[in-house]
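lol so apparently i was supposed to do this last week
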Amino acid sequence: MNKLALHWQILIGMVIGTVVGIGLNLTASERETEIPALDPRLPETIQSAFISDTTARTTIEYTKKGEEETPVKWTIHPLGGEGNNVTSVKELKKVDAFAADIYLAHGQSTAKRFGGMMKSIGGLFLRMLQMVAVPLIVVSLLSGVLGLGLATEPKDGSTSDSDRPAGIGKMFTRTLLYYVCTSGLAIITGLLVVNIIRPGLGGNAAGAMAKDADAHAKPLSEVLFNQVEALIPANPLGAFTEPNFLSIIAFTLAFAVFALRCSRETQDRIRSLAEAGLDVMMSMTMAIISLAPLGVLFLMGYVSATQGTEVFSSLGKYVIAVAAALALHACVTLPLILYFIADRSPLDYVKAMSPALLTAFSSASSNGTLPLTMTSVRNRAGVSNRTSSFVLPLGATINMDGTALYEVVAVLFIAQLHGGQNLPLSQQIIVALTALLASVGAAGIPHAGLVMMVIILQAVGLPIEMQGIILAVDRVLDMARTAVNVWSDSCGCAVIDKVTQEAETLEENLTLPLGG
Ligand code: ASP
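anyway here it is w/ aspartic acid bound
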C-alpha cells in the first residue's frame, strides 16, 4: 500500500488534534474544587481553599488559619482585571507559589490538564527541530557560499546549473530587496484593511485591560542597534549556545567568505566537510520531519483544548480584520509575485511547502520551523541549496510579513479604541515604518510580535496597557502570522532563485561571444 503523502498526514494530524481539543474544550473545560478544612491536601497553615477553573478565567481563593476574615484571592485571566490579577499560572507562581501549586495539583479542569500534557508532548517535536536548527544553518550556509566559490572558478566546465556563479553581494541585495518589498506590501494591505473594516470603532470590542503588559519596552533605536551588534558576536561560541540566529548567520557567513580567500586546498577541505555535514543534517531533519503529523496533532490539541472562545465574540471584528489582511497577502500578493516573477504555480508551490506551513501554523515559531522549511524548499520545491541557505535562515529572523501586517492592524485597532477615531495619516505612516522595523527586530518565536508592539505603541503615544485587550486572541493570530512569515520566506527562495538564474544566463550570453 502506498504511504500517504506527508502533507496529508500532517493535515490529518492537525484535524484530529483540533477535534480532540475542541471536544475537551466543550465538555471538560469547567471545574470547581472545594478543599474543606482539615483536608490532607492542604498544608497546616491553610484553613480551606476554593478553585474555579474555566478556559477564560481561573480563580483561586484560600484562607489562612486565624485569618478567616480576609481570604487570599487570585484571578488568572488573559485580559487582566481588577485586584489580585495575573495573566498566567507562570506569573502566579512568581507571586504566590502556594496558590499556583494547589491549582496545578487539584484545581485544573480536565481540558487544561490534558492540554498541558499535549503541549509537553508536542514540545518534544519542537525540541527535535530546535536541536537540528543551528547545525543545519551552519553547514548549509557554508556549503552554499563555498559552492559559489567553486563556481567562480569553473575547473572543467562541468559546473551544474545550481552551482553557477553569482556574487554573494548580489544575492544579498536581491534578498534584502525582496524582504523590504514584500513586508512593505504586507503593511499596505494591513493599513487598507484596518481602515476599511475599522474594527475598533463603534463596536463593543473593548474588554478589561491588563495590568501592565510587558511595559518595559526599549526604544526602537536601541532595538535596532542591538540587531546591528548581533551581527558582530563578541563571542561566536556564545552565540551558538544561546542561540542567536543573527550572530550565527553573520559569523558563519564571514567564515565562509574568508575561506574563499584562502588557498584552493583549504576551500576544498572546508567545502567537502560542510557538504558531508549537510548530508547528515538533512537526513536527520527528514527523520524528524516524519514525526511532524504527531507533533502537529498534539500542538493543535493543546491550543484548541485550552483557548477560550468567549473572547472571540468581543474581539471578533479585530480577528476578522487581521485574518482578512493576512489572507489577502498570503493568497493574492505573494502568489502573484510567485507566478509572475518566479514563474511557478502557486498551488504546486504551496503543496510542496505545506509541511512547513502547517508546522509553522501549529507551532507559532518560524525559527522552530526552519529545518522543515529548508528541507521542503530544497527537496520538495526544488530550489537550489545556495539560494535557500541564504534566504531562509536570514528570512526566519528578519523577514516577517505576517508580523509586520499584524502590528499595523493591532496598533491601529488599539488607536481606534483609545481615541474613538482613526489615527491621522502622518501617524499611520509612523506606525507603518515602525512596524517594518519592529518586524525585523522580532525573534521567530511565539508571541515575539506582541512584545515588539510596545515599541510602536510608544512611537505614537498610545498606552501600553491597552495591549491587554488583544492578549487573549494573540495565540491564534500568532499561528496565522507565523504561517504567513514562513510562506513569504519560501516564496522569496523561488523568486531569488529564478532572478539569479536569469541574471546568470544573461551574463553568460553577454560574455560568451567576447570571452569565447
Ligand atoms: N511567532 C512569530 C514567528 O515566529 C513572530 C511573531 O510573534 O509575530 O514568526
